[in-house]
């Protein structure tokens, strides 16, 4: 499976994906890393591995309309023969045209137990602060299929972490990020192996096919 990985920050989930590929637990290759900004860690990680990089900034004058931004992304995805997309800390909404072209082939990792603490503006420290302010006893990470809204697609995998009474957003973020690094490659491996099936909103994980 040829993956295009979209990122907006340091790229630690990109690193986890690459580690899983190296370990042989994810049958994929990263064809390109796509970002919405220059000078971020994800680009440095990709450069260090010799992975092609593309910066597609939706605010750029050339992409002033949503349709042009979608066309620019679709052009990149076609040029790198993309089979699936991994949103690894990507903060922009994926245009509907891209979602339609890659239906059930885009996975996102989110730092909470969706549907709690998701939606527009809920990313990074904002999520963890909201979890603490609410008084939740558990948080975690969710991998889900991407639709045209923020964080509303069908859930593929989730895992939890405890919330401690003396937690800070930074401390909680570190525990959640460690879980993200585990569940995201696992979910992508299931996608690569053809083991994900949708029944309405329910994602079923199919058994491993028999070799006999």
From TrEMBL:
Q: Which molecular-function annotations from GO does this UniProt entry contain?
A: phosphoribosylglycinamide formyltransferase activity
**Domain annotation Formyl transferase N-terminal: ranges:** 1-188
Q: What is its EC number?
A: 2.1.2.2
Could you provide one GO biological process annotation from this protein's UniProt record?
A: 'de novo' IMP biosynthetic process
| Record site: Raises pKa of active site His | 151
Keywords assigned by UniProt, alphabetized? Purine biosynthesis, Transferase
Under what name is this protein listed? Phosphoribosylglycinamide formyltransferase
Record the organism.
Rubricoccus marinus
């Amino acid at each position: 499976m040829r993956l295009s990985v979209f990122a907006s920050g340091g790229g630690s989930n990109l690193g986890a994906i690459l580690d899983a590929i190296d370990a042989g637990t994810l049958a994929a290759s990263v064809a390109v890393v796509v970002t919405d900004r220059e000078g971020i860690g994800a680009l440095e990680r990709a450069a260090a591995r010799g992975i092609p990089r593309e910066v597609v900034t939706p605010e750029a004058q050339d992409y002033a309309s949503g349709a042009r931004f979608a066309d620019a992304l679709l052009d990149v995805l076609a040029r790198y023969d993309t089979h699936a997309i991994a949103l690894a800390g990507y903060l922009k909404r994926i245009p509907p045209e891209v979602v339609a072209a890659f239906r059930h082939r885009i996975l996102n990792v989110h730092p909470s137990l969706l549907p709690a603490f998701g939606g527009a503006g809920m990313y990074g420290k904002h999520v963890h602060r909201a979890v603490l302010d609410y008084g939740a006893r558990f948080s975690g990470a969710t991998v889900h299929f991407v639709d045209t809204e923020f964080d509303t697609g069908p859930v593929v995998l989730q895992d939890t972490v405890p919330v401690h009474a003396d937690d800070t957003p930074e401390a909680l973020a570190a525990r959640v990020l460690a879980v993200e690094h585990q569940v995201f490659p696992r979910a992508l491996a299931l996608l690569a192996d053809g083991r994900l099936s949708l029944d309405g909103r329910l994602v079923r994980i199919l058994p491993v096919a028999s070799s006999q």
